[in-house]
Specification:
alpha+beta, Serine Threonine Protein Phosphatase 5, Tetratricopeptide repeat, 4 domains, 9 helices
C-alpha cells in the first residue's frame, strides 16, 4: 500500500509538467493559427501583385469569417474579372451592388463586366414612377437610409414640440407645415431602408454560371427547348420549390425552367 502511495505521489509532478507542456503547446498552436489569419492589406497586396487566386481565397475568408460588405464583394469581383471569369465577377459585383447601390465604382465595374458577356441585354422600358423609385433607392445604402430616417423623424418630433409649445401663431403654422413635410420624408426614407433590407434578405435573383443553358418549358430534361442563355446572365427566380429545377424570368418577360446547378443566387 505504501509503495502504491509513493508511486502516486511521484506521478503528481509529472502530470503537472505534462499539463503545463500541453498548455504551452496549445498557446503555440493558437499563436500559429492567429499568425495564419490573413489581413486585408495582405489580400490587397496579393491583388496588386497579380496573385489573384491568393487574393480571392483571402477575401472569401473574410466574408465567411468576419462578415460580408460591398467592398469585399467588389474586390472579389475585380479578382475574378482579372482572371476572365466573367460570370463570377458579375455575381460578386451584383452582391456588392445589392449592399451599396450608391457606389459609382461598383456600378461602373458591373457594367464593364456585362459588356464581356455573350447575351446583350437591352434596357427594358419601365413606368416613370418605378424608374424614379429605383433611382432614389440607389442614392444611399441601407445604413444611410436608416440613419436618414432617424434624423428626419427626430426633426419632425422637434417641430411638433415647437408647434405645441409656441405661442406665436406664425411660428405654429410654420412648424406645423415643416413637421408634416419632414414626416413625409421620414416615411419615404423608411420605405427605402426597408426595401433595401428586403432585397438583401430575400435573394430572388441569380447569375447563370454555366457557359450556356437551354431553358425548358417544364422542369424536366424532356421539356421543350425554349431558348438558350449564357453565363453572366441575370435572371429572376419565380419558383424554387423543385429540388433540381428552378423557374426563372428574364428582363424581357420570357420564362422557363433551368437546372438549379446552372446558376448561383446573388
Amino acid at each position: 500500500m505504501k509503495k502504491i502511495l509513493a508511486l502516486v505521489l511521484m506521478m503528481v509532478p509529472v502530470l503537472g509538467m505534462a499539463q503545463e507542456n500541453d498548455g504551452m503547446m496549445s498557446l503555440v498552436a493558437d499563436s500559429a493559427r492567429i499568425d495564419a489569419v490573413p489581413t486585408l492589406a495582405e489580400a490587397d497586396s496579393a491583388y496588386i501583385q497579380g496573385d489573384y487566386l491568393k487574393a480571392i481565397s483571402m477575401y472569401e475568408w473574410f466574408i465567411e469569417n468576419q462578415g460580408s460588405n460591398a467592398t469585399l464583394y467588389m474586390n472579389l469581383g475585380n479578382c475574378w474579372l482579372k482572371r476572365d471569369e466573367v460570370a463570377r465577377a458579375i455575381l460578386n459585383y451584383e452582391r456588392a451592388y445589392l449592399m451599396d447601390p450608391s457606389d459609382p465604382d461598383i456600378r461602373f465595374n458591373l457594367e464593364l463586366a456585362r459588356t464581356k458577356t455573350v447575351d446583350k441585354v437591352s434596357q427594358v422600358n419601365e413606368l416613370f414612377i418605378v424608374a424614379w423609385f429605383k433611382k432614389l433607392l440607389a442614392l444611399l445604402d441601407v445604413n444611410g437610409w436608416a440613419v436618414l430616417t432617424v434624423m428626419l423623424f427626430a426633426l419632425t418630433i422637434l417641430l411638433i414640440g415647437l408647434f405645441l409649445f409656441s405661442k406665436k401663431t406664425g411660428m405654429r403654422k410654420i412648424s406645423f407645415s415643416f413637421s408634416a413635410f419632414f414626416l413625409l420624408l421620414s416615411i419615404l426614407s423608411f420605405i427605402f431602408a426597408t426595401t433595401q433590407m428586403g432585397n438583401i434578405r430575400n435573394r430572388d435573383t441569380a447569375i447563370i454560371m454555366s457557359p450556356s443553358v437551354t431553358v425548358k418549358s417544364t422542369p424536366s430534361g424532356a421539356g421543350t427547348d425554349l431558348f438558350i442563355i449564357h453565363e453572366g446572365r441575370k435572371v429572376k427566380i419565380l419558383d424554387s420549390s423543385m429540388k433540381e429545377w428552378v423557374e426563372i424570368r428574364l428582363e424581357d418577360g420570357n420564362t422557363g425552367w433551368i437546372p438549379v446547378n446552372a446558376m448561383e443566387i446573388i
